[in-house]
Amino acid sequence: MKLHGLRQIAPYSNNSLAQSPSKLIRSFGLYLIRDQDRAYGTAVTRRLRTMGIRDKPIAPGSPWQNAFAERLIGSIRREFIDHVVVLGEAHLRRMLQSYARYYNEIRTHRSLDKDAPLSRPVQRIGHIISHALLGGLHHQYVRI
């Protein structure tokens, strides 16, 4: 998903570096700002360096240093996770992938002049109908 036209939510698992390095570089660019999670071990940081990506961990206990990620996590929590019952890890992953599609393709962003990160054409004629998304938590209004 994009934030302010610069970043996208990339729903990758921890082993994404081994699966698709080029996809990771296209999503994150040449720097990876991250927290101090143990998931980023020496193997991950070594792999990042060989791919030409600089690893930039934030200071411990300083989430404000990664404001984009903190804002995104807050949006996911407020707009989605706080309103659903999670039935397990696989269910959560499917839900987050659905939210990532919604966030990138449908949800409007004020910083993008009320457009979605993956821009779409303006529909000027036709009747407006509503499509329920994410179990009815959000709706998409389209013209047919």
Walk me through the structure.
With 144 residues, this protein is α+β, with helices and mostly antiparallel strands. It has one domain: Nucleotidyltransferase, domain 5 (2-Layer Sandwich). It is built from 5 helices and 4 strands; from the N terminus they run H-H-E-H-E-H-H-E-E. Strand 3 and strand 4 form a beta hairpin. The radius of gyration is 17 Å and the shape is elongated. The N terminus is likely disordered.
Overall pLDDT score: 79
SSE sequence, one letter per element? HHEHEHHEE
Strand order of the largest sheet: 1-2
Largest sheet: 2 strands, parallel
Q: Distance between the terminal alpha carbons, to the nearest Å?
A: 26 Å
Judging by the overall fold, what is the CATH architecture?
2-Layer Sandwich
According to CATH, what is the class? Alpha Beta
Strand content: 5-15%
Radius of gyration: 17 Å
Low-pLDDT ranges? 1-8
> With helices defined by DSSP (H or I, 4 residues minimum), what is the helix count?
5
Number of domains: 1
Quaternary: single chain
* Count of beta strands: 4
Briefly note the CATH topology name. Answer: Nucleotidyltransferase, domain 5
Helix share bin: 25-40%
